[in-house]
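User: I'm putting together a teaching handout on how multi-component assemblies are represented. Below are the sequence lines for each component of a complex, exactly as they appear in our records. Could you produce the 3D structure of the whole assembly as structure tokens, so the students can see both representations side by side? Please keep the chain order the same as the input.
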Amino acid sequence: MSVAEAEAREVRLDAPSGLWSEAWRRLRRNPGAIVGFVLVAAFVTVAIFAPLIATHGPREQNLSLLQGSCCPGPSGSHFFGVDALGRDLFSRVVYGARFSLLIGVVSVAVGLSVGLLIGAVAGYLGGWIDSILMRLMDIMLSIPGLLLAIGIVAALGPGLTQIMIAVGATQVPIFARLLRGSILATREADYVLAARAVGVKRRSILVSHILPNSLSPVIVQGTLALATAIIDVAGLGFLGLGPQDPSTPEWGTMLTDTTRYLQTAPFLALIPGAAIVVSVLGFNLIGDGLREALDPRFRGRA
Amino acid sequence: MLRYVVRRLLLIVPILFGVSILVFFWVRALPGSPISSLLGERATPQLVEQYRERYGFNEPVYKQYYKQLKSWGKADFGNSIATHRRVSEEIKQRFPATLELTIAAMIFAVGVGVPLGFFAAKRHGRLFDHASLFLSLIGISIPVFFLAIILKYVFAVRLHLLPTVGRIDVLIDTKHPTNFYLLDAIITRDWHTLWDVLKHLVLPAVALGSIPLAIVTRITRAAVLDVQNEDYVRTARAKGLPPRTVDTRHVLRNALLPISTIIGLQAGLLLSGAVLTETVFAFPGIGSWLRDAIFNRDYPVIQGGILFVALVFVLVNLIVDISYAIINPRIRYS
Amino acid sequence: MRRIALKFGLVAAAFTGVLLVTLGLGGSSSARPTLIYAGAGDPTYLDPGLVSDGESFRVSEAIMEGLVFLKPGTTTVKPRLATKWSASRDGKTWTFWLRRGVKFHDGTAFNSSAVCANFNRWYNWRGAFQDASATYYYQAIYGGFKVNEVSGLSPPLFRSCTARGKYKAIVKLRRKSGTFLPSLVISSFAMQSPTAMKKYGADQGELRNGTFVPTGSYAFSHPTGTGPFRFKSWTVGQKVELTRSGNYWGTKAKIDRLIIRPIGTPTARLQALQNGEVNAYDLAAPQDVATIRANSKLKTITRSPFNVAYVTIHQGPGSVMNDLKVRQAVAHGLNRTQVVNQFYFGAGKLAQEFIPPSLPGWSSKVQKYAYNPTQSKALLNSSACKVPCKIDFWYPTSISRPYMPDPARNFQAFQASLEASGFSVTPHSAPWRPTYVAKVNDGTAGDLNLIGWSGDYGDPDNFVGTFFKSYSAQFGFQNPAIFKILTRAANETNAAKRIALYKQANEMLMKYLPGVPYAHSVSFIGAEKRVKNLIATPVGGTWFQYATVG
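Assistant: Of course. Below is the structure of the complete assembly, with chains in the same order as your input.
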């Protein structure tokens, strides 16, 4: 939430058009970004091919595997060991990639689309509509993100959809401000003034001139927002606001459930934790790389 | 300048007003009405109906809101359902704890992040640069509560170096006039207590400071890189000033501007993080209090607490913006 | 500007310094005759008459005593401030002979007029004190007050208390009651100093946004009883501190200071114990028991089971659960043995009926239901709800109860075993308070839900009477035969007859299946080995009187 917001300040708002191919070239030369792409590609592959990769069903219990107080660790038949209900942790982590990806993408999509809509309306129409919308965003921003998300989940009731809405909602003001700022900056740009002078309609100026040129900070921000979304979902899970069905293999919930076995079976918490860190790191590396690639200041430096 | 400050101050009013409306209606949207949270496990339909009438939940909503606003105006947030204490009283006790924790986290973040970022920029493109960038990325990528749990397990449970819970050793019997334990200990020159309070602060502050640390490192690095290529820095170098003088007097000074804004922006982030960190370390601050309140549907606490947090957050940003405006006059007119 | 850089350098250096030095010196613990004990939260108030939670009772039990008590570690009623008692033949007049030479901590003498002052205080409560949030236990046992000001309160059980001489008190009731004496062990009915209560305004209180709040200082800083410890201080969120009472009438405490501190989660309490920040802690999680025992410096203290965990079967208009066959299919479809064996770490005992075996009225002859998926499916297919029989199943989040240490885990195991037995389970969850408990009570928590009960005092009425004496929305069934027998049992004062009635009731219940009990669970105190003679009482309390810290 607020990480993304802070990051937003770093994002340069003025990315001139026609820099995409050059950006791509520079991105490929950035070792960090490449590592990021590899991590994310692995993450997405695992998510898509989960049924092929997993060795067991993610909800398949085998209580007879449990010994003493908890859970046997990694072995040949269970690469990451088994959890407190005798389920194969490896398969759960693999399926968990699906949920994390889904939750991340959907909540960012929610935040992004609503945020962009508000930002575009505010930035383009201006006037009192702009003031009202932006004060509304200020109000949302004045409540710490996690509390806002907890509040939304508390009001809507627990569940995957509700979590996605809650996490998405916390990102709305960030995207709204970003796009508004970007529109305000491009509105006075020469090519927009030129288009207006030759009588192009307001809406088509917005759609065909302003929006495309405001896109690059949004893309960077969107990538970073994916990272924060995954972390926030894990945080909500940690606070006990995860999905309704406790057998859902979602990393945050898995982590939360197992911190109580930290002393007897630390791997149960460490493995999902590591999965979260690695996937979040992937998105952050790409976001970073994109920012540098799209930032005119760095042009020609790489 | 004065006009700018007044304008910014006035802008606070609609925000707080908006937050109050948001909080008021949000509480009513929660499943499990305030009544059943009052009665808890003993709620019978008859009792619930009685309570609805007694506490005016049957009145029209705008009337309820008006009543509520009036008492909020008098800084009366009511009593907590869980502890039965005045919410304002609890805020007085708990806010200093959170403030102490956040300041400690910020000192950690700035104290480590600025040098780290500075030296990363000085060694741009070299191993130290890559390593610090990567470290800061990992800092951002680790969920705060996960880091807190690991730190606590390693340094307290395994190595027995630091305490695991709370703010102060329970065997210490001292008065806390300001509720800022560090300050109290310094005032009374009670070094033993000061030491103990510091020990309780280390792990939560490091966990909470991890994300700001990463961000401060990156911002510092970026800012220093930016400034380094500015004309005045080149000129200074060309003049033959010693590198250290150039670094401190020209580079760092100008790089500090963006860093100072970021510190303000971290307020909300730190409060979010405090919810998780305080929960892990049973630290008696605002964060763990609000988390419990939300779980227990402790309405007066949720309302009062969130209003208070929003106020603090808005004020911190105001202070940062104003000081920024003082440093950089261009801001005022944009 | 060099100064700024310098400052940053200094701050960084200072911080690193603090970190290093701290790491070097680390936690210290000194041996003092002090016991630091961790509970799960702060007390609500220190006036036990006005609370109903274990965290408050834990403290008040060390300060105050009742007329009778449960012999530490058991559920047997024993004399305490009363040395003996007798009931009249009609069960309405009770005579208590009192212990001589006992003084409250403020010097007030304990005698028959002090006893009557306490009984009359409860009976005469008015206004805000009649709110359920203030006097839950009084209302649960005695019904209403002298003047009922809140609608829905039943007529009072209590009639009068008379001091007959200095050491004999006679309590008259309005009707016969089998629960009057056993319920006197509840901490809410502890004897408190009438002088101190008056001086510090114990009977001043008001409702503030719906919650009862004492306005006097008694319940916060002057609780006064006759117990082995006297109150010293209470810092909310940090600790309650008690000191040894030097003129206690019985065995005087072995420790000088008793500090009770609130630590929210079992894991955090365990870690505080491991790190030497507390000497002992309550409500250890079963999964941590092995860790504690594996540590050469630590041990566990066992609290014998006085609770029951069960699955509610909710019946009601149009519910598939109205069919006995479906209820039987549920009972055979829950893999209770495996849940109890695997998840309670040896701390659980498979429950076959709703009361724990330590209570009179427990029957060995109840119908038992073994896990049998084939039989479940057969039962379902001969009922209205054919395989797959769709049901809604609720479980609570953010809670750990002694009888249900990890609800989500129990739920998942039951969910899997029911699905193997021909059911199709839709999971639902809600946070324990207030949503979940309210939904269970209202009967809106699905067809099945996980819940349980911890006993307040050693009487079967406290278990089956609470659940099944009359219609309740939670279970949603009407069964006059069961209601009648439980009401008769509660009013019966003849012990042998009562036991027979409760046995019969338990057998009827397990045939009818209003729910499926599955566990009676031991709960644990984790402690340092040098802590000796700390006693855990079944009803959830802890006896600090004999404890020593070696």
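A couple of points students might notice: Chain B touches chain C through 78 residues (CB under 8 Å). The mean pLDDT of chain B is 81.
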